[in-house]
Amino acid sequence: MYSRVCLLCIIVTISLGYVASRPGVKENKKIFSVSLDVINPRDRNCKLMSNLSKCEVDLSGVVDSVTVANMEDGMSYVMTIKIGEAKQAFKVVLDTGSDLLWVFGSNCLDGESDYCKGHPKYVLEKDKEYEDFSIEYESTETSGKEVTDVVHVTDKIGIKDMLFGAAGKVGQKYEGYDGIMGLNMDISDGHPSVIYKMIAQKLITEPAYALYLKGGKSSEDGGEITFGGRNEDLVVPDSGVMTKMLPGDEVMAKMTSLKLGKDFYCSPDKDECRVIIDSGCTEMSAPLAFVTKLNTDINADKDDFVDCKKIDTFPTIEIMFGESPLTLEPKYYIEVNGEVCYSLFVETDEDEYDWLFGVPIFIKYYIEFDFTDKDEHICFWTKK
Fold first, then answer.
1. pLDDT in tens, 193-240
2. Which residues form each disulfide bond in the chain (predicted)?
3. Are 245 and 252 in contact (CB under 8 A)?
């Protein structure tokens, strides 16, 4: 049996310094509020839904792209950040579904846990008192101390006074990366996220970032992340499909409908089309009715395994935002592991959202997240 655990997509509780409510939205609150200086009209070459305004925010910063590594044959994507004046390097998983940053700390002792071995450690001052933090995931927990330092996400973008966690205890082995970097805008318990700080410190030209993930076998060149905008060289012009972000703690949007074969799923007027866009989750979550129908159509067994030779005959999923369709072909939602193949769709077990699109949607589309005030939106671009 191959493990298909979604390591990053469920945070149950975060105590003391950090507070989170992933994966659901329990309060109808604004994603962020930050004073932005100049707003000018422009054409985004993106099909706008829900009467969104067209605007550009001049933050007098930069647009910068860095390469991300593809780990676990396309299931995890990491980039290198550098912390402190010494610019100590850490590899962190890119997680659009959270707003927290943590790395291993010197309080994670090799002699006390094998899980601490093999990672760079952020050095804590011995005589300094730190606040505690604790992050509880679906099947594991990470805890340690809160620290503040400069965090260099690229050579051109250094975030001053960034609050993050120095993990002293982890509940599982992390191979190939040294922490997690949340990319959501939300502020947990008053602690600004990485993206929020970039905008507040005017480090990026636009309040946006974009992810290009290649998929395929593990590689150091697994794609790129662009802070401050998007890389026009990677997208087909005029192909963008834009949808407004829903208010709340998650990067969430609302579909108009979703079609599998001749059957339609979700009804926006009944609030059944809320979807989280989460690069930190390897799977796709959907209501039971959809998962049951899909498994029937692809003749999956009780463990979701399918006949690898028949993948090309499986149905294409059509996702609607407004009147513009996106498609997800079977090669994106079926995982191939040698001679074993299985569906990446699992049943949604949360009340706060209906669907969750993880890494597979990022492999199909170049996805841009724009946090312009009163115009927060996600744009799905066709890759060149």
1. 999 999 999 999 999 999 999 998 889 999 999 999 999 999 999 999
2. 108-116, 308-341
3. yes
Q: Are 282 and 344 in contact (CB under 8 A)?
A: yes
Whether the ω angle into residue 237 lies within 30 degrees of 0, i.e. cis, is: no
Give the model confidence (pLDDT) of 369-384 as tens digits: 999 877 899 999 999 9
Report yes or no: 103 and 181 within 8 Å, Cβ to Cβ.
no
Q: Is 95 a catalytic residue?
A: yes
Tokens of 255: 């579909």
Q: How far apart are the first and last CA of the chain?
A: 36
Which residue type occupies 202?
Answer: K
How far apart are the C-alpha atoms of 376 and 52, rounded to whole Å?
9
For the domain covering 232-382, report its CATH number: 2.40.70.10
User: Exactly one of 95, 99, 178, 186 is catalytic; which is it?
Assistant: 95
Q: Where are the domains of the chain?
A: 11-34+60-227, 232-382
Which residues does 270 contact at the CB level (< 8 Å), separation at least 6? none
Q: Please choose, from the candidates 251, 342, 283, the residue with its C-alpha nearest in 3D space to the C-alpha of residue 75.
A: 283
- Domain 11-34+60-227 and domain 232-382 have a common topology: yes
For β-strands 208-213 and 219-227, DSSP reports them as: antiparallel
Q: Look at the domain 11-34+60-227 and name its fold.
A: Cathepsin D, subunit A; domain 1 (2.40.70)
Catalytic residue among 64, 99, 178, 278: 278
Residues 102 and 186: their CA atoms lie apart, in Å, by 16
What is the DSSP annotation of 292-315?
A: HHHHHHTT--TT-EE-GGGGGGSP
Question: How many C-alpha atoms does 364 have within 13 Å on its Cβ side?
Answer: 21
pLDDT in tens, 327-369: 999 999 999 989 999 999 999 876 667 899 999 999 999 999 9
Residue 81 has pLDDT above 90, yes or no: yes
pLDDT of residue 270: 65
354 is catalytic: no
b/e string for 67-79 if b means 16 or more Cβ within 10 A? Answer: ebbbbeebbbbbb
Geometric angle at alpha carbon 225, from 257 and 187, rounded to 5°: 75
